[in-house]
């Protein structure tokens, strides 16, 4: 445990309360995975915590939670609580409790109920260690309650399956298959967030096979045929057919379109590399099974990297042909640009002028 986390726990304890790191950090610690996913739970209430700490940047008293800012890191601290009711996949009503075990029972999967105290002792009240040993994801409570409370947990289960390479408890699989329609009830932003996390893992193919095998594709709005593992989220989305519901930034949308266009052709030309740049070309190459070194070499040896490197300017073209800036000018520049890239024309002024004149 990092010194700063230990100090936070001890500082809360020095004010007469108990405090533990809970969940992902402890799970990852046992798995030998470095984690910055720090959640602290305590019997101190948000009001107590605001008296203890001066650097609390946000308070969500309705959820019994505060955000503590340490340098540039935000650490979530929550009060032991029971969640009485849910609405729209979020707790609607909570009740504070003095019991650590009661607090842990509101969580999703047993492997995420492990706690660590300030002396780095592991507290395992719900048999989470056993699940980690057996590499299985089991629910904290009856799946019919767990997933009805928060349907996002369905995708979280699939995400943990991929991130940790664990298997799912049969009760979880049975619930998903029986209630697949509930995937549509997950907010599209949350759905994409979970999918993006899955697409960052090394087990994307396992996820895609799972949703295909259990007929979940229509409910998630994503479809796959041939798929090649990539090291980028954009590379994954570019290989999928997906619902228009999913929203992307303009930059990501353009990149997906460019990659799709290349992989549909099943080849990459020098001109593709020139127009799309090295990043897009490398992703497309990986999908197509083309050696990245080959793409790097082609990019390095391009005669020009952008149109302004042509040894003739738009103004000179207008003067040579006695034309005004127009669509015709654009077409001429595009033609000589492509011929230079393809090696059909040298990027030398006199050669370019001769070719421009011949185009009239």
Describe this protein's structure:
- This protein is α+β, with helices and mostly antiparallel strands and 360 residues long.
- The protein has three domains: 1-131, Beta Polymerase, domain 2 (2-Layer Sandwich); 135-222, Hydrophobic Seed Protein (Orthogonal Bundle), CATH 1.10.110; 307-360.
- Helix content is 49%, strand content 14%.
- It contains 18 helices and 13 strands.
- The strands form four sheets. A seven-stranded mixed beta sheet has the order 3-4-5-2-1-8-9. A two-stranded antiparallel sheet has the order 6-7. Strands 10-11 form a two-stranded parallel ribbon.
- Strand 4 (65-70) and strand 5 form a beta hairpin.
- Helix 7 (152-164) packs parallel to helix 9, helix 13 (250-265) crosses helix 14 and helix 14 (270-288) runs antiparallel to helix 15.
- 31% of the residues are buried.
How do the helices and strands line up, and which of them pair or pack?
Blueprint: H1 3-14, E1 19-22, H2 24-31, E2 39-42, H3 46-52, E3 56-60, E4 65-70, E5 73-79, E6 81-87, E7 90-96, H4 100-104, E8 115-116, E9 122-123, H5 128-134, E10 136-137, H6 143-149, H7 152-164, E11 167-168, H8 170-178, H9 188-199, H10 204-213, H11 217-220, E12 222-223, H12 233-237, E13 241-242, H13 250-265, H14 270-288, H15 292-300, H16 314-321, H17 327-341, H18 349-358
Parallel strand pairs: 2-5, 10-11
Antiparallel strand pairs: 1-2, 1-8, 3-4, 4-5, 6-7, 8-9, 12-13
